[in-house]
Amino acid sequence: MSTPSPIRIAAVLSTEHRGRLMSHAREVNFPENARIFDEGTRSESFWIVRSGTVTLEIPVPGRRPTPIESLGPGELVGWSWLFPPYVWQLGAQAMTPVRAYEFDATTVRMLMDADPAFGSAVGHWVGRVLALRLHQTRTRLLDLYAPRLTAG
Fold it and tell me: What pLDDT, in 10s, does the model give residues 14-41?
C-alpha cells in the first residue's frame, strides 16, 4: 500500500486557493509514452495529474534518460514555470494514458502577483515540490553513480 504524497494539491492548498487555481484549469490528455516536456525547453504550462502516471527523468549523456520520480493523481507536474528563465530542468513522459489539468504559467503568475495570499500559498506549494524533487534526484543519482562499497 502506498502512502499519499504530502505535496498533492489537496494536502497543501486550502479549499479557497485550490478553487481559485482550478478555475483556470483546462482538461488535457496524454497517450501512453507521450513526451510532456524535455529538459531545456521553454516552460509555459504546468499540470496536475487527474489519472495515470507521469515519470520525471533526467537526461544522462550516452544513456537513456534516468527516471527520477513517478507522479500520480493530485500531483504537480512541473515547477520550472515559476522561476526565470522558465526553462524545464527535467523531462517528463506519460507512462500510462494520463488525464491532467493544464494551467497557463503566465496567467497563474499574474494571479499570484495580484493576490499575495494566493501567491504565497502557491509559491510554498511549488517550493515543497521542488525540495522533494531535488532530494529524490540526488538520491537517484547517488544510487546510479556513487562508488559501490563491497564487504571486505
Answer: 899 999 999 999 999 999 999 999 999 9
